[in-house]
Each structure stands twice: as structure tokens, then as C-alpha cells.
Amino acid sequence: MDFGFKQALSATTIAVAAVTAYATPTLYEAEAQSGVDAASIVSAEDFSGGKYVKPVDASGMTFTVKVEETAVYDITTKVFIKQYDWITSKITVNGVDAGSMLTTPRNCDSSYVISASAKMKVGENKITVGNQSIGVDYITVEKHPDPEYKIGTAPVTPNASESARKVFSFLRENFTKATISGMMISDQNFNYDYGNMKIIPPGGCTPADSCKYTDAEVQWKGQTDIAEFYKRSGHYPAIGGFDMLFAAGGHSDEGWFRGYSENNLLMAEELWKLGGIPTFTWHWKVGEDTVFYTKDTYPMNGYRSSGCANGAKGSSESNTCFNYTKAFKDSTCKEINEASQEYKDIVNDIDKVSALFKQLQEKDVAVIWRPLHEASGGWFWWGVGSGDCYQQLYRLVFDRMVKTNGLKNLIWVWNINTDPQFGYDYSALNASWYPGDDYVDIVAVDIYDPLNDHNSGANYYNKIVSDVGTNKMIALSENGAIPDIDSIAEDKAYWSYWMTWSQTWSGNFLEKTSTEMWKRNLDDKRIIALDDMPGWSNFTVRNPVTKNVISNKVKISTHGKALSFSVPNSGKVSVSVFDLTGHRIATLMQGNIPAGTYNLSLQSIAAGNYIVRASVNNHSTMQILRLK
């Protein structure tokens, strides 16, 4: 039975899997489970590729698994999908959904190897697979391995400012040890002098101004979202969330909209002086657009919608027609078309936002910056094109802000997202949109409904580790209910920070967490609140040594139809190639070999997408292999 393929990856995934230490999985054959009779065992005539157990009803095939430690476990199952059933084609562990069988494009009447991760308690656990339309061959279970984090010691911005290096160092020192609390501000209290088109700062009001808000209300702690956070938890968040929502686009030069953007800067500066960390996202409305959403639901057509195809130049009330791919010379988006209006609109907006961040840089304020968020979702205009074009757009934003406009105070966040063409749970996170290690300091994800029970979100966390790697810190950039710190610690889902979305503008996300849960988490020493921050004048940039787990240093690289395989120590070696359904199609090397580099031929393997797995002394690494 081939169960060496650890994870079912979509054909679009191109990231290298994290290097981890694997134990031998425990195999559970479906036909060996109690209660299975001969009539349930289906022959190869009905389900190709061996013996399968066909569940007798929609409840699926249940396995009883006993584990000796409460932890997150990886589950791999081989199934034969007879037909689609979006409702019941699930993998559940102790009654809780752990994954779906239909998150990647699959054909009916075919066998697949599918994986999930889930927490199991010490003792007996129930794992249920599929429904009566799915034949089940086996499951394998093994404890999820601890990754080796290899976080760099400096931000990706060349010659980053001292304030940015302080923020990066603080995040790095606390990563895997504590989680930093955050809260988003949407609605804002600020006083504005409309006659002179300028913000009135705290303490700046005169009787002639007829200010609407008191000084206490316009300060950061007095903002409704932050004040409500304090009311529930007894603490202020260490990270404050802001939005460049009105920095560009239609109305951006009008009074209230300008005031919103200017007030962002006042609050960011104030929060910095209090010892906190400002973070900004950007719901980007391009040029004169007043919306950033694409039209309707998936598939997100965006600029390809019928309204845009009929010659619309701007936006409807609900849909932008902006096609950013026209900022490049062709559909590959490899070369910028500086003569295009789309390119001019893009860089003009970037320059507007850069000017605002430049004001913070001049005051030695650093910012966690999350542009082009929720990458592959498709509901924003930057998510409508391909992953390759998105990467080029992200790099364009980075290069313009850093290399052209000279910003040194930004910590760059890339927001991975589920891809609707694959599904909406954690297994549909699409790492092929990743712009590259040179452009990203933190990989973050937004999670709402899955955290309603305050679980750790470990499935999402582990998927990021698996697909993006271990070179970057990992954060929860938007959430509803907070993940409970006990669950975070137990599951080793070490979120650098979480960011509860706003209470205002009908968000009501503070209400997703009970007052008891708020207080218990914010009182916990493993959650960093504003009063736990050291103060930036007291903080010194350090380069701590990250504690690593024992891990293999196997290296794989491919060049055309040749594979290079390097091992640092002698030992028992196996190098195998699997197709994307988990079938082993070739064993390239097996046996005891000395340390060194070996070149292996791939000439006998047909063009296509594969997984290559290399194991040395029970340590393994995997990589997507694309052969042309």
C-alpha cells in the first residue's frame, strides 16, 4: 500500500513543502475495521485499484484510532470518488470537520489520496471518511511533525529603518512564545476643519470650531472599536489596525475622506508613542473608482463581467471594471507597460499612499503593511487575474514603495487565501500566489467562521507551514472570535498576532468572543497586550537564536529532466516520485549511501506535475516537480 504521499496538493501549488521529521504512519485498512462484512467490500470491478469498503449509508466509514498523546495528527485516506456530494464528502474527527474531499478539481470514478489534520485527544478517537458514494481503502495516522523555523534576522526591506528593525525583532523574539493582540478600527472619531481642509488634532479645538468629539474620544484609546475592546478585556490591544481605504479613489480629496486618512496617521503616531504597533491594510479603489469589489459571487468575473465588456470605463455601484493586467505588456505580466493608463493609475495611487507612510517614517514610526490582501479570493480586483500576474503586481507595489519612493519603515505582510476554484476550507489555501521570500516578512491568513469555537486554527497554520515553508513568521491578519491561547499552545499553532475585525460599521466581531474568554486570554502572559509592551525607546534590536527541532537538511533541485539530491550524512535513503493522486510511479534511489550529491535521471517520466519525496534516516522532504 503506497501511503508515502503526505498531502494531496492541487496542480497549481508550486511551493516547496517544509522540511520536517516524519515517523512511520500507522495504517488502518478499511476492510479490517470492526463491523465490516464481506458485502461491504467492493472489488476492483466497481472501484478500480484494489479493495474498497463502500459505506452502507451517508454516515460514511468510521475508524477507531487510539493515540497516546493529545496533539494534532495528520490523516491520509485513499478513497474512490464515485460522484460528487458537496454536503457529506467530509473527513471528520470526533464529529468535527477536518477537511473536504472536494477542495481540488477531481474526476468522478477515480481514486485519490487526500489528507487532513486534526486534534485528537489521548485515548480513542473516531475518524469518519466520506459517504455512501465513496469507497474507502485505508487511512494512515501520524502525529504532525514540529517544523524548523528559519526566520531571518532583518526585514526584507534593504536598509530598513531602526524603528522597522525594532518591530521585526520584537515580532521575531516572541514568535512561537507569545501571541500579540490586535484590534481593527473602521469607524473613526475625529474633528475636521472643513474650511481649511485639515485635521484638528487632540487639544486643537477652539470654540469657533464647534468640534463634535471630545479630546478623549478622538484619541486612539477613545475610538469606539478600541474602547469596546478595553471594556470587554480590561486591556488595550498591542496592535492597532488601520485602513488606507480612502487614501485613493473617488472622493479621496474630499473633506471627510481626507480627514479619515489624516486621522490614521495621528492615531498611528499616538499608538507608537504608547509602545504599540500600527498595522495598515488597503481596500484599494483605483483612480476614480469608488469600489474595490468584483461583481457578484464566485466565479468572480471582475473586469470580465458583462457590464465591463459592454464598454464601461469606471465602476458600477457594486463592481469595479479595473483590469490591472493591462499594466503589463501581455497576459504573462512579466513586463510592465509604463505607457498604459492602468500602470499610471496604479503608480499614482501607490505614490499617494507612500506619501502618507513617508510622514510616519519621518517621525520614526514603523508599520506592519498588508497590501493586496486575501490574494486568491477573487472578490477584490487584484484577485481576479492569475497567480503569476498577482505576484508581479505585489512586486510592483513593493518596488515602487521601497525602491522608488524610499520607504524603509514597512514590515511586509502577504495574505494567503482560499481559492474558490478549489473550495473555502483550509485545504484550499493557494500558495502559488506567493510573491517570494524577498518581498515578504510575514505570511498571514484571515479566518472567521472556523474560529467560532475558539479553536486554534491549526489546520490553516499547518497548511501555511507545509505549502509556504518555515522562513517567515505566521499571523492571523483578520479574525472574528479569537483563538483561545490554551488551544494555540496545545496545537502549536503559533500565531505571531491576531487581529479582531471591527465592532463598528456593523462588524460586531467583538461579540463573537465572550467577556470571560476576552478577560482570560488578555490576562494570560502568553497574550501580549499594550500594557505588556516594553516601549520602543527601551527596546534594543537583537538577533536571538531560534530554538530548532532536529531536522533533516536534505536538498532537492531539478534542472530539466535531471534531479540533484544532496544529503549531509550517510544513511538509509529513498527517493520516490508520486503523481498528484498519491500513486508511486518511480523509485529513483533506495538503500544505504554515503553523504554527498547525486544526480538522478528523470528521462523515463512523462511530462506532467508530480511530487518527489526524499527520505534519509526517517527524515523526509517533498517538492512539487514539473516536467515539460
Question: What do you see in this structure?
Answer:
An eight-stranded parallel sheet has the order 13-16-17-18-19-20-21-22. Strands 1-30-29-26-27 form a five-stranded antiparallel sheet, with no helix packed on it. It has helices spanning 162-174, 215-218, 224-233, 255-273, 306-309, 341-362, 387-404, 458-468, 485-491, 515-523, and strands at residues 20-21, 26-29, 41-42, 52-53, 61-67, 71-81, 90-93, 96-100, 110-120, 123-129, 134-143, 179-180, 182-184, 191-193, 198-200, 239-243, 277-281, 367-370, 410-416, 442-447, 473-479, 498-500, 527-528, 555-559, 562-567, 571-579, 584-593, 596-601, 608-616, 619-627. The protein is of the alpha/beta class and 628 residues long. 19% of the residues lie in helices and 27% in strands. Helix 4 (255-273) packs across helix 6. Residues 1-23 and 544-552 have low confidence and may be disordered. It folds into three domains: 23-144, Jelly Rolls; 162-188 and 223-532, TIM Barrel (Alpha-Beta Barrel), CATH 3.20.20.80; 552-628, Immunoglobulin-like. The chain is globular. The chain has ten helices and 30 strands. A hairpin with a 2-residue loop joins strand 29 (608-616) and strand 30 (619-627).
